[in-house]
Design goal:
heterodimer; A: 586 residues; alpha/beta; Ubiquitin-like (UB roll); Alpha-Beta Plaits; Rossmann fold; five-stranded mixed β-sheet; four-stranded parallel β-sheet; 34% helix; globular; B: alpha+beta; 2 domains; elongated
Chain lengths: 586, 152
């Protein structure tokens, strides 16, 4: 322990604590801009400067560790003027069209300007040339005119996701965050995970919106618009309406969607259960018949593109099962259309996702197995919240309603898909049944839950020892798969039978389409919410879902049947590490 | 493949990135860092393409655009400015019929600006490839350019 004085108040703290953390301990908030709790401090903005007695220059609180005996002052005239000047200089380079900005009222720069009491723009840049907005990607838009060069997006892309799509380019006033070769994110290795949009403090990175198209479909009397919502959305949508992080809003969400004008409100959790039956059957078949092992999950579209680009040799290990979103899309225009007697060309299939990569997934050319584009439009959680606010819907005041039949019923196994480890847990619950014909009694498989980067577990299925691993965040995935690749090369097989990978830290509850201003703690709370919901549901194993039994009875036959293969399974490509474009089919 | 020959001369250490890039640029027939150059450099050093791209754009001596055989870098620092570099810039633009950063149609000359070359005693000054030319006048510029034209 060491002792320092902060604003003349004695503090005793652990060695290695930063000034920022130490000050917080005694109740002083030092303003920050580039700092983010989930990233290593880089001190690029300089807003957090403080005075330390005896030091010739100001110190950056976010990255300076306190030294025994230091006398620190966080609120002196010099500190205040310096912070203000730095912010005024940043603002002079920033596009100040706040009311029309996507981040209006949720912008960290805006609120900092309020905190620091900036009422006037001292520095104005005349004749500033607008930089080109990058809208080459189907998922993410990058507006360099809003960018304040804090570097968070580059850090998350490089250090957490190890995709390295974004980089700092040029220097001085010309400095810009861009992709390699400056050809636009849509022509780069970007996997569309959207973590950059979650970490961006301003409106420089955001999802490409489909709101207008969805409004048009809803208002077209000739169209039958169906909607599905991903598991994670029910644990985060409430935050957009001022509810506590991790509030479960499933019934209110259905009610709100119905009031928005969707013709049928279904649930992605239904097809999450379906995914488990398809993927679970695949796992069991591969183990019994000596197929490619480990089998790797395929429901995270950011991960799928990552694999196609950086680990193409693992393509044949991936489950061929489509993601729940795409299974839903295919069924909405076949099974549902036939059942209701609606011509599939009149059905518009919309999905609400915590994810930006889902926008890319639904636009993949092979995702047309229903004969039409299986999922027409993907909206992120943020977009659907915007639509609800625009329509004057307050989620908090909504009644509890249920989803529609026949694609609305789900089990606890479906709902935990939204948290890291959830797909593996759900798959194991059903795999046990598929192998033994008996039900797994204790369905809580705690070893695969939680926020640790890579988790491992061994499950005993009647003497068959199943070793599984779970990774979330692409950096963790890379570490795990480097190990698996080495094992496959050296020994011809891996120690694992099954691996779950989610592109985003925390799984889908930490997706690129989640509410702004999230951190790892918030992601964890949403995950816990899903596990809580799982406990309360009447069915907790996917194969028990009556609607799933029905869809096989009425339509698909049995898991991995020919019809199921046609509609619910897919294939993968090899992609270039330069521009992310398809090189060849697998 | 001349690029492989270049890489053989270096250890695959990030310390060498600038040497490698210079070597690649000097040996590129169009005197710039092409996409292929970034690719081979990044693969050799095992770093992302975006990283090499960032390095190339940071340093003004690297170009991502194809350039002519002779690169003219006119100094725009204050001493040269005081000695009339601005009018020489206009002269060069007119003579070569290019703007700053552009290459002549015959592919011979590219016009660029540079900060101080460290030979303020003979201002105004410019570099043409690796050669310094001081005490510039329009006549001297004519001579230097004609000489290069005749060599080609």
């Amino acid at each position: 322990m060491i002792r320092v004085k902060i604003n003349n108040i004695d503090v005793e703290i652990k060695e290695g604590t930063t000034i920022l953390e130490a000050a917080k301990k005694v109740g002083f908030n030092i303003p920050t801009l580039c700092h983010h709790p989930d990233l290593k401090p880089k001190g690029s903005c300089g807003i957090c400067v403080v005075e330390v007695e005896g030091m010739p220059t100001l110190k950056r609180a976010c990255m300076t560790e306190v030294v025994n005996g230091w006398k620190i002052h966080t609120n002196t005239p010099l500190v205040r003027t310096t912070r203000k000047t730095i912010l005024e200089l940043i603002l002079s380079e920033h596009d100040m069209d706040c009311p029309t900005c996507i981040k209006n009222n949720k912008c960290e720069l805006q609120s900092l300007a309020t905190t620091l009491g900036i009422n006037d723009l001292k520095f104005k840049k005349e004749g500033k040339e607008k930089k080109k907005i990058d809208d080459s990607s189907v998922a993410i838009v990058r507006n360099p005119n809003k960018c304040i060069l804090c570097g968070r997006c580059v850090q998350v892309c490089e250090e957490i996701q190890t995709v390295n799509a974004l980089t700092v380019s040029q220097r001085g006033f010309d400095t810009i965050i861009t992709d390699a070769f400056d050809v636009g994110l849509g022509n780069s290795v970007c996997v569309n995970c959207g973590q950059c949009t979650v970490f961006c403090p301003v409106g420089a990175l955001y999802e490409k919106s489909n709101i207008d198209k969805v409004w048009m479909a809803i208002n077209d009397p000739d169209k039958h618009v169906v909607v599905q919502e991903a598991p994670a959305v029910r644990a985060m949508l409430g935050e957009e309406f001022g509810m506590e992080p991790g509030t479960l809003v499933v019934g209110k969400m259905y009610a709100a969607l119905r009031r928005l004008g969707f013709d049928a409100v279904f649930d992605t959790n239904f097809t999450a259960d379906l995914t488990i039956l398809e993927e679970g059957t695949e796992i069991v078949t591969r183990i019994k018949e000596g197929g490619k092992l480990p089998i790797i999950t395929s429901c995270s579209p950011g991960w799928v593109k990552f694999m196609e680009t950086f680990f193409p040799h693992l393509g044949e290990y991936l489950s061929t099962a489509k993601s729940p979103q795409q299974m839903f899309g295919a069924l909405s225009k076949t099974y549902y259309a036939e059942l209701k007697g609606i011509p599939p060309e009149k059905i518009v299939s919309v999905s609400i996702m915590p994810c930006t990569a889902k926008k890319f997934e639904c636009s993949r050319p092979e995702m047309k197995d229903s004969g039409f584009k299986d999922v027409d439009y993907v909206l992120t959680t943020r977009e659907i919240a915007r639509m609800m606010r625009e329509a004057g819907i307050d989620l908090k005041e909504m009644p509890e309603e249920s989803a529609d039949d026949p694609m609305g019923q789900y089990t606890g196994a479906g709902t935990i898909f939204g948290a890291t480890g959830g797909v593996m847990e759900a798959a194991l619950r059903s795999a046990y049944f598929l192998v033994t014909g008996r039900e797994l009694q204790d369905v809580d498989i705690l070893a695969v839950r939680g926020m640790e980067g890579i988790k491992e577990a061994e499950i005993d299925i009647d003497g068959l020892k199943l070793k599984v691993a779970v990774a979330h965040g692409l950096g963790n995935a890379r570490r795990l798969l480097d190990k698996v690749t080495e094992q496959l090369q050296k020994e011809g097989k891996s120690e694992y039978h099954a691996i779950e990978i989610m592109a985003c830290p925390g799984g889908c509850v930490g997706g690129g389409g989640q509410p702004w201003g999230s951190d790892m703690a918030r992601r964890a709370r949403r995950g816990e919410t899903l596990y809580k919901e799982d406990k309360t549901l009447p069915y907790r194993r996917s194969h028990e879902n009556p609607s799933i039994k029905l869809v096989y009875e009425r339509y698909l036959g049995k898991p991995n049947s020919e019809k199921a293969h046609h509609l619910l399974h897919t294939h993968y490509y090899k992609r270039s590490k330069i521009d992310g474009k398809v090189i060849s089919e697998h | 493949m001349y690029r492989e020959e270049i890489l053989k001369r270096y250890e695959p250490s990030l310390d060498n990135i600038l040497y490698i890039l210079h070597d690649l640029q000097d040996n590129n027939p169009q005197h710039y860092i092409s996409k292929e150059d970034i690719e081979v450099c990044a693969n050799f050093l095992k770093v992302p393409y975006s990283y090499v791209h960032g390095v190339v754009t940071f340093y003004s001596m690297f170009s991502l655009e194809p350039r002519g055989r002779y690169i003219i870098r006119l100094c725009e620092s204050p001493p040269c400015h005081l000695m009339g570099s601005e009018s020489l810039l206009e002269y060069l633009k007119k003579k070569l019929n290019v703007d700053i950063g552009e290459t002549t149609k015959d592919g011979l000359f590219t016009l660029e600006l540079t900060s101080c070359l460290g030979i303020c005693g003979v201002a105004p000054a410019m570099m043409i490839n690796n050669e310094m030319v001081g005490n510039l006048t329009p006549e001297k510029i004519d001579a230097v350019i004609e000489e290069r034209r005749n060599m080609s």
